[in-house]
Amino acid sequence: MTEQQTVPEAGAAFTPGDEERRALDAWFARYEALSARGEVEAMADMAVFPLNVVTDDAAGEGSAEQWDREQFTATMRRILGDAGGEEVSFESVRTPHFLTPSLVVVHSESEMTAGRHTRNLRYADILVKRRGEWAFQTMIQGGWGATGADGGAS
């Protein structure tokens, strides 16, 4: 006899309340503030490693990799160092899709300003809740394929 597989109860539809949304917004505000100050180690503390990085490069070649903490911090130090010490700020609109109370996919439309230079960004993150705190586990954004820890194409 064949066993029938069923969807786990945790996979049932979940609608977040105001508290879940506030906690997620606070997590992103903290992460952006750390980014703006270049506090890379604290940023890494907010992730689950290995971190999945889904991206492409300038040639349009897609990739999916796993970064360890060392690769993440080296890459972020180099990227955030490109701001040249200028003030960095973010204006973001986020659309979270809560799968469960502890799993969320977040689509972001952001404007990042460093000094007088502004870039529009579109990306998605997958966050997991561990020990009551959000942590990001997957970042999905175009263009990171040329930012590997060695400085070349990943």
Structure description:
- This protein is α+β, with helices and mostly antiparallel strands.
- 25% of the residues lie in helices and 42% in strands.
- A hairpin with a 2-residue loop joins β3 and β4 (103-114).
- Residues 149-154 have low confidence and may be disordered.
Please count the beta strands (DSSP E, at least 2 residues each).
6
Strand content: 35-45%
Strand order of the largest sheet: 2-1-6-5-4-3
| Gyration radius, rounded | 17 Å
> Helical proportion?
10-25%
Salient structural properties:
154 residues, 25% helix, alpha+beta, disordered C terminus, six-stranded mixed β-sheet
Describe, in short, the structure shown.
The protein is of the alpha+beta class.
What layout of secondary structure does this protein have?
Blueprint: H1 18-37, H2 40-44, E1 47-56, E2 62-67, H3 69-81, E3 88-100, E4 103-114, E5 117-130, E6 133-141
Parallel strand pairs: 1-6
Antiparallel strand pairs: 1-2, 3-4, 4-5, 5-6
